[in-house]
Amino acid sequence: MIKLIVGLGNPGAEYTATRHNAGFWFVDALAQQCGASLSSQKNFHGFAARARIAGQEVWLLEPQTFMNRSGQSVVALARFYKILPDEILVVHDELDLLPGTVRLKRGGGTGGHNGLKDIAAHLSTPEFWRLRLGIGHPRTLQPAGSQQQVADFVLKPPRREEQAEIDDAMSRSLDIVDLVIKGDMEKAMMRLHAAPGK
């Protein structure tokens, strides 16, 4: 079962609408859906809330350490509440998936994502769950010949049509949260990955 859901992003108003904050968007929406209120928790270096989802107690967390130090926040809360790596779901933006595409998986590589790298390093294992929200890649989304760098791309807001696709993927992801919390990952993946055209 999942006991901790972490949304990745960067703190500060200037980053709120950027692609790299997709994990924050998801946790904000989930908190609203289950009536939880995130508040600053200095011991955990982030905003956190205890929520009740699918009859289970779950922690929601948004690290406020900046992306490349996300693991500091995750491991602080996980150690305090004795939450194991495979009981953690990390929600993050994914360059390798188009906007509107979302995938659930456990373990694997980090795809160059600094937040995932730091969490894997702090937990001493990559074997935590990930909800990968597609944001696309500048090579596939920008006009031919565009030289936009990945670091610049993820720190910019999505275009309106991309945002609509990401919002749709988040909505579908929120619909399978109960299954994820209960640990019914196979059913959650089947439902999530079977979306038309995705």
From TrEMBL:
PROSITE patterns for this protein: PEPT_TRNA_HYDROL_1 (PS01195), PEPT_TRNA_HYDROL_2 (PS01196)
InterPro entries: Pept_tRNA_hydro, Pept_tRNA_hydro_CS, Pept_tRNA_hydro_sf
GO MF annotation: an example: peptidyl-tRNA hydrolase activity
EC number: 3.1.1.29
Marked site (Discriminates between blocked and unblocked aminoacyl-tRNA) residue numbers: 10
Swiss-Prot/TrEMBL GO biological process terms: protein quality control for misfolded or incompletely synthesized proteins; rescue of stalled ribosome
Protein name per Swiss-Prot or TrEMBL: Peptidyl-tRNA hydrolase
Subunit record text: Monomer.
UniProt-annotated site: Stabilizes the basic form of H active site to accept a proton, residues: 93
GO CC annotations on file: cytoplasm
Gene3D superfamilies for the chain: Peptidyl-tRNA hydrolase
HAMAP family: Pept_tRNA_hydro_bact (MF_00083)
Subcellular compartments: Cytoplasm
Residues annotated as the enzyme's active site: 20
Binding site for tRNA: 15, 66, 68, 114
